[in-house]
Amino acid sequence: MTARRFVAALVAGAALIACGGGDGPTAPEPGTLEVRLTTPNADDRAMLVTVTGPEPIQAVSGAVGSALVLHGRVSGSQATIAVFGPVTSGVLARVAVPDVGRVGAYTVTIVEVADDANQLRASLGGYSLTIVR
Amino acid sequence: MIGARSLLAGFAALALLAPVAGLAQGPVLRGRLHVIWDAEADATDRGGRRFLLVDDAGQATRLLPEAARADELAVLDRRVVEIAGEPAAAPAAVRGERGVVRVRAIRTLDGPRASPGAGGGAALSPVNYITLLCRFADDPSTPFTQATVQRVVGPLYPGVAQFYAENSWDPGVMSGNQVTNWYTLPLPRSAYVGASSDFSALARDCTAAADADVMFPNFFGINLQFNGALNTRPVAPFDTLSFGGSFTLMLDGQTRSYGMTWLSGIHHQNYVVVTHEMGHGLGWPHSSGRYGQEYDSRWDVMSVGYLRFEQPFGWLSIHTVAHHKASIGWVPAARLWLPAAGAVEAGTIVRTALPPPGGYLMAQMPLSPTKSLTVEARRLAGHDSPLPGQAIVLHETEGPRAYVVDPDSNGDPNDAAAIWLPGETYTDSVGGVSITVDSAITDGFALTITRGWRLTVAIIGTGTVTSDVGGINCGATCTSLFATRGTMVALTAAPGPGLSFGGWTGSCTGTGTCQVAMNASRSVTATFTTALTMVSDSTRPAGLMGSFYADTLRASGGGSARIWSVIGGALPPGLTLGGTSGGVTGIPAAAGGYRFTAQASTGAEVISREFTIQIGKPALAQQAVMDHLLGAGSPLTADQLRFLDLLGNGNGRLDVGDVRAWLLDTGVAVAPPGGGRP
To answer: What are the tens digits of pLDDT across the range A30-79?
Structure first.
């Protein structure tokens, strides 16, 4: 190994250490997950959803710049979120979790949707709710 | 005897059983109809009667009426009639009857005046009987003497002549009773007495045997006293029978009807049997209670009979009922009380047995076109000494038949219910008769008899009620007695000053003119009250949307029956007005101010008022609402949850749609201007 090659290997090894890589456990990464909605309707005006994850949910909040009024309740690993306003497809809410790396372990469910006349949707067909980093 | 005559004319009116045209459809027979009281009679007549039609030649034909119409046939006893019918099999054929005819139609051929015993106006007296002693050809015995029988039918107590003199109040009524010596019949007993007694042959042969010695037309009736037994009763106690009734015979150049008895030898000195059968000879039927029994009344020799055993005579009986006596004119017109319709009359009725010289012997009044009522006083005297009690006794009569009035319907027409004593009142509201036994007097009872249909008016409050007929002007005259059943009476109510008419109760309802049909005694009450006034204020208590609301609208006066209704505006959604209670109740479904007009009506009066009700909304904390929606406990009450649901989508539970509606209602900006996602 030349000196130049040794320096390159050292830099690469340092980079691996810095990245926590290797064959040891990955460190949790606190952060925020986004709850994203796809709706078939244009006159959704209120929605009640639940988020369930593998770890205690830390907080819920609205999407940045959203016109929706959000009320949430966190209880351990579950959050219940009610949003009021013109609900459209896009980010519905944000959920602060201890480890965004475990996003795949979270489930989101639509409980009920009300239209502009405050009537509940009889069917939730066509609605889709996902949670992403 | 106006009373008796009018009743008996009514009997004849029942005679036409079917249209006379029916006479052309079958054999037609003419003759005199006779009823023989025959306890062995077949089942075609529950009353135990044999009906015979005897023509002028003395030939008898047995008649079978429809069972239900036997009574109609019986009232034609001794009348000349024409019969249409068809031949029928004899229930028990006898030699002296030439056949049996089932009756289809009948009409009378004689005038309204009936034959002796069926009433003709004058008293039927004397009614002397000739008793013929006849022995069967095969039985030469003479088991009793002419003298013995003469004592039985004679004028010395308790002889038949004495018995009937006491019954008729006429010493001469049977003072001419006679008895012959023995005659021998041409045929043996078996020719006369088989499965059925041959009344015709017995009558013809016995009278023929004596004809040379007896001038029959001098007598009203004939007792055929045989030396042996006639038939026995076909049911227990299977005792030997005697019979009574009538028969037509052509004797001594005259064809006429005679009162007849057929007496078994064993009964030759049985005073009960002889007087009973001779009563049938006089035209009397049995009397009884209304219990389907023929022999259950202890008020009549024509019923139970055996009531007193007295040595050395044996069994003795009692008087017959006044109805029977009146039917043959034995009650003098001056002693027959016929209370006037539409009147209240007081009088006394004296005992029928050994009465004093004055006073009514009975009262009689119609109850309907086919029924009458008789009133008689029975005291323990003379032959009436074994009566069930000393009392006024009432009988309902239908044609010749009398039934004891026994209100307890317990099967015993001789008990206390049938014995009317001082202080007791009999009332037949439909028949229009009321009889009060006021007191007992030495020889009878003092009575008040009211005939008619009484209308009685009562008033509650202050006012007057007047009638178009009958003179009612109540408060002063509040009752009237109407003589004619079915009279229509119109009553008009006039309230006193400051009052209103609340309405009729009793035989009338409503608030208009009261129309009363006087087909029974009636009572009507008119209620006058203060004017109907609304009491409740216009502003009613406020309510909350979603919370139960209860209020009552109140009025006073105008009587007790009020009907409430909303006649203008509208109650808050969810509330209703009770039609009879005036209650405003329910769960308000919407907030706001509501104005409505309610009416209270008594029929006669109507009042109304406009009311307002304010329905508010409950004040809720947003945190509580959100907590309840998001599942953080149950901080909201049931009323608050109902409010939110009513405000939202009304699906019966709290949901996000309800909360959105509430947020909008409370002004929370859930849809900022421009809306939509940035």
So the answer is: 999 999 999 999 999 999 999 999 999 999 999 878 888 899 999 999 99
Output the pLDDT for position B238.
78
Q: State how far residue B637 is from chain A, nearest Cα, in angstroms.
A: 21
Question: What letter represents residue B278's amino acid?
Answer: M
Please tell me which residue of chain A has the smallest CA distance to B648: A118
Nearest CA in chain B to A43: B676
CB contact under 8 A, B657 and A118: yes
CATH of domain B2-108: 2.40.50.500
Residues 583-642 of B with CB under 8 A from A: 626-627, 629-632
Give the gap in angstroms from C-alpha B643 to the nearest C-alpha of chain A.
14
Give CA B556 to chain center in angstroms.
Answer: 46
Where exactly are the structural domains of chain A?
Answer: 28-132
Mean pLDDT by 10 residues, chain B (678 residues): 26 35 60 86 64 89 85 89 87 78 90 44 87 98 97 97 97 97 97 89 97 97 97 79 94 94 96 96 95 92 91 95 96 95 96 96 95 97 94 96 96 97 95 96 96 95 94 94 94 90 90 93 92 92 98 85 93 96 97 97 87 97 95 94 97 97 88 40
Domain A28-132, what fold?
Immunoglobulin-like (2.60.40)
A66 by Cβ neighbours in 10 Å (0-12 / 13-18 / 19+) ranks as buried
Please check whether residue B672 touches A, CB under 8 A. Answer: yes
* Number of other CB atoms surrounding residue B314 within 10 Å: 14
Quick check: B668 and A69 CB within 8 A?
A: yes
Cα nearest neighbour of B662 on chain A: A118
CATH class of B533-616: mainly beta
Task: Indicate the residue of A45, A82, A90 with minimum beta-carbon distance to B630.
Answer: A82
**Residue contact B670–A46, C-beta within 8 A:** yes
Count how many Cα atoms sit within 13 Å of the Cα of residue B596 in the half-sphere of its side chain. 19
Domain coordinates of chain B in residue numbers? 2-108, 129-283, 322-450, 453-530, 533-616, 622-666
Shortest CA distance from B629: residue in chain A: A82
How far CA B175 is from CA of B127, B150, B162, B371, in Å, comes to: 9, 12, 8, 35
Closest CA of chain A from B647, distance in Å:
9
A-chain residues near B658 (CB < 8 A):
118
Could you tell me the pTM of the whole model? 0.66
* Per-residue pLDDT reduced to its tens digit, B52-68: 999 988 889 999 888 77
Strand partners, B182: B133
User: What DSSP element (H or E) covers B56?
Assistant: none
Residue B202 has a pLDDT of 96
Could B649 and A120 be called an inter-chain contact, meaning their C-beta atoms sit closer than 8 Å?
yes
A&B contacts, CB < 8 Å: 88
HSE of B424, CA atoms in CB hemisphere, 13 A:
15
DSSP B312-368: TTEEE--PPPHHHHHHTT-S-GGGEE-PPTTEEEEEEEEBSSS--SSSBSEEEEESS
Q: Does B652 touch chain A (CB under 8 A)?
A: no
Q: DSSP alpha helices (H): ranges in B98-187? A: 146-153, 160-168
Considering only CB atoms, which chain A residues are within 8 Å of B631?
Answer: 73, 80
For the complex shown, is ipTM > 0.90? no
Mind telling me how many Å the CA of A102 is from chain B's nearest CA? 25
